[in-house]
Specification:
This protein is α/β, with parallel strands linked by helices. The protein has twelve helices and 15 strands. Helix 5 links the parallel strand 3 and strand 4.
Length: about 400
């Protein structure tokens, strides 16, 4: 018996454990201080009434013989996939039902999709980066190259034709930087992927925050993407399903090479290793895209984006460089006074009792930068902004 020793190459989870440790240590010695946390990327508003109503109806269905559901379709119930299909159509994207696969979240699928790719593929990921892109490929022993995202390129690296890569991770709007590619920039990535016979693994978890028409809601709004891209999305941010768990992946029928069809392979993988998302959860997810559901959802999204504007306006007032905050719930700021990421974390915690996330935890290019999130309460965000202004003015 031999273990997969590639796991030895995966660093222990450090970033948020260290954040929690420093906050706990401060709390123990400053029991009178109120700490405001703007570091975590978790939502705080409850599920909207239309979703709750649908989930209650799902519970009732499960209580009656004539509507009880056992094992569901591996790719998700048709009623949910049809609602996702309609949602994409609003952005001008036509999907076949067979191209939509419901899952328990984008994070799961971003790791699980690698089952259909060979371990000898070379992977390109941005730096700074959402850790799952790196760690899941390290576990499989793949070679990883990094595309440096910097202040000079607006934290939006562009294709480098001198690189030979097979899998390309793109997250737009980005976590952690909040930066978002224009449709024209994504067309360059699509052309690059097709030229290299590579596949873009496109994380669209934050598409619901996009309001600028020059930005894409889906990679499939870009000509040529159907032959080179797979898209991952989630109900976590649009509908607050971080604890409820539901997402979906879009695998186009055209994505194939040497007779190997990615869509068929993903269905085969899911039917072997996954038994689907609970019926009750899928009922709630389908309600998100109803007229009433979207009306309620948009109120929640506006709440978070108003928080983002408060933080972004604060950065503008202080003359601090940042990305995000306008089409993203994240504000990625340059640490003031040439502080390092962890230095600024401690400074903000000790002097303003505000918690953010040090950029260095997301990769080497994150050093000297800091992430604040708009997912807090309005009252907490307003107070945090006031404290930051007072401290840094």
């Amino acid at each position: 018996m031999n273990f997969n020793k590639n796991f030895n190459d995966v660093a222990d989870s450090y970033l948020f454990a260290e954040v929690a440790s420093r906050v706990a240590a401060f709390s123990r010695t400053h029991t009178d201080k109120k700490i405001i946390k703007l570091g975590i990327g978790d939502v705080t508003l409850p599920l909207v009434p239309e979703v709750i109503k649908a989930m209650h109806a799902g519970v009732e269905d499960m209580s009656k013989q004539e509507t009880f559901k056992g094992y569901g379709p591996y790719e998700g119930y048709a009623f949910l996939r049809e609602s996702i299909q309609s949602y994409y159509k609003e952005s001008g994207v036509n999907l076949g039902l067979s191209e939509i696969f419901v899952s328990d979240g984008a994070k799961s699928d971003l790791g699980n999709i690698l089952d259909i790719f060979s371990a000898d593929n070379t992977v390109l990921v941005p730096d700074p980066v959402y850790p799952v892109y790196v760690d899941t490929n390290l576990m499989a022993g793949r070679k990883i190259l990094f595309a440096d995202a910097t202040e000079e390129n607006g934290f939006l690296p562009m294709p480098d034709y001198s690189l030979d890569v097979d899998l390309i991770y793109i997250c737009s709007p980005n976590n952690p930087t909040g930066a978002a590619y224009t449709k024209a920039q994504l067309k360059e990535w699509v052309d690059f992927a097709n030229a290299k016979h590579a596949v873009i693994l496109y994380d669209a978890a934050y598409e619901c925050f996009v309001s600028d028409g020059n930005l894409a809601r889906s990679i499939f709004q870009i000509e040529g993407a159907r032959t080179c891209a797979i898209e991952f999305c989630s109900f976590s941010k649009i509908a607050g399903f971080t604890g409820t768990r539901c997402g979906y992946t879009v695998v186009p029928e055209e994505l194939e090479k040497d007779g190997f069809n990615a869509n068929k392979a993903w269905l085969r993988r899911q039917s072997t290793k996954f038994n689907g998302v609970p019926y009750i959860v899928q009922k709630g997810a389908a309600a998100v895209f109803t007229k009433q559901g979207m009306r309620e959802i948009k109120q929640n999204l506006a709440y978070y984006m108003d928080n983002a504007k408060l933080i972004a306006d604060c950065m503008d007032d202080l003359g601090i460089w940042y990305t995000g905050g306008k089409n993203s719930p994240y504000i990625w700021l340059k640490c003031p006074r040439n502080m390092g990421s962890w230095e600024f974390f401690d400074y903000l915690l000790n002097n303003a009792q505000v918690v953010g996330t040090p950029g260095a935890g997301f990769g080497k290019c994150g050093e000297g930068y800091f992430r604040l999130t708009a997912f807090g309460s309005r009252e907490g965000t307003e107070e945090a902004v006031a404290r930051i202004k007072k401290l840094l003015k």
